[in-house]
Design goal:
The protein has six helices and five strands. The protein is of the alpha/beta class. Strands 2-1-4-3-5 form a five-stranded parallel beta sheet, with helices on one face. Strand 1, helix 1 and strand 2 form a beta-alpha-beta unit. The protein is globular and about 50 Å long.
Amino acid sequence: MTSKRLTCATCLRPATTCICQWITPTPMRAGVLLLQHPLEVHNAKNSARLLHLSLPGSVLVIGETFAASTLQTLLAGPRRAVLLYPDTPGDASLGIAPPPPFEPAWAVDPANLLLVVLDATWRKSRKMLYLNPALQALPRLALRDVAPSRYDIRKAHAPGQLSTLEAAVHALAQLEDDTGRYAPLLNAFDGFVGQQQALVTARG
């Protein structure tokens, strides 16, 4: 495939910037639901597609505001849905009630959990939370003791902010108490970041 008009059927990127070489199948115990903001779909720096393709059984749905029935179906059991989201006391200013607590005992068997991940900028993720009451009602899982981001191709607006792939991988490792399982995927992510940096350099 040499034409710039051709698109890879797997990663949905132009053939010249295909990222399929970085797909790293990584079975996980918990389920993963990715809710991707529409503005992220065609962002070359976005990591959610690589994450989705690397986590067998994960689900990726695009949207900002979801019908209540749609979210009800996506969040329905048998797994308990938990939202990967930091503790944000400022949510009260949005009229959002405090979420129910995440019970540590749930992590005894991660296979019973569905990790819900918002793929968006920080500002857009807050809007998604505000517009979807069903997400507000989910217990939240906040990351702890994570390493600095490797996401050098996108500017973080606050310390500790990670790419969607990094955040989800760290959350899964935290739930499963198994960092080694996801190390190959993080290494592949480094390759993805390097590829994007090389493309920017070549075009500059």
